Every structure is written in C-alpha cells, then in structure tokens.
Amino acid sequence: MRVMAHPLRMRILGSLRLDGPATSAILARRLDTDSGQTSHHLRLLARHGFVTEAPERGRGSHGRERWWKAAHASTTWDTGDAEATRAFERTARAVWDLAMDKFHREASHGRWSPQWYDAAASSERVIRTTAEGLERLREQIDRLIEEADNPGPDSETVIVVTHAYPRRAQK
C-alpha cells in the first residue's frame, strides 16, 4: 500500500491502465516527467506486483526498450494499516482530482461533445444503512459498473470513482 501512496507511481499505473502499455520514455512524455524517474518508479511498482513487463510489445529497434503494462484492471485495498490507507487515499484523491480537472479543461475547450459533458457527473448522497447494507450497495455498484462497460465504436474510457464511508453526526 505504501508503494502506491506516491503520486507519480499512481499516475504511472493509471496511465498504463487508461492509455495502454508503454516504455519509461513514453510514460515520461505522457506524464511530463523524465524517463529516469519513471524507470525507478516502474521498477518499484513491478517489485510489488502492480505492473509487469509487456514482452508482446517487443524490444524496440535496438532491442533495449522495456515495455510495461498494468498487472490488474483495478486496485482495491483493505490493509488493516490505517496510516497506509490514509496516505494512499490522500494520493488517490489528488490524482483523481487532476483527472477531473483535465476533463473540465478539455470540455471548456470544446474537446468533448455536450452529450459527454452532460453525462459526466459528480454527486453526493447521504443514506442510513448498516455495515451489511453498505457492503451490498458496493457489490451492486460494482455489478452496475461491469454491466456499463461496453466497448464499442462510440465508447470512450470513463473513470468511475466511488466512495462510501460511515459518518456519525456531530453534536
């Protein structure tokens, strides 16, 4: 978990998931960083099983390129380590905010159709439920997300982030 509590590592993994396999040089261009730093973080991510080599992409014209891909389609966590979880979630929120800001910047420059802009949303709902009810809700949301995954000619990549936490009333 602590490995993923670093913004660049989280962005690298996100880019490999969203944009596909890449070399450290490609990732450096995508993420506006340098390839040495990217290589270092890729090795750490690989050591902990978040990324793997993508030999199907080849080794490049000089036989030296090292291609990487995400090892899993998503990252979930339940470490039992509250401090590591908080660090990871802080980083995750910052990275998700960057992605949302990028969408709104692109939309303001007309890079997304009005239909896509209207379909995108952030919302908040407050409900009362039990721990079991919350778990059922998460399972239903996961099922709906899987059902909505519909690669087709007009489809785009969509980032879906969910949060569900209990909160006690403040007195």
UniProtKB/TrEMBL annotation:
UniProt-listed Pfam families: HTH_20
Ranges of residues in domain HTH arsR-type: 1-93
Gene3D superfamilies according to UniProt: Winged helix-like DNA-binding domain superfamily/Winged helix DNA-binding domain
Listed InterPro entries: ArsR-like_HTH (IPR011991), HTH_ArsR_DNA-bd_dom (IPR001845), WH-like_DNA-bd_sf (IPR036388), WH_DNA-bd_sf (IPR036390)
Protein name: Helix-turn-helix transcriptional regulator
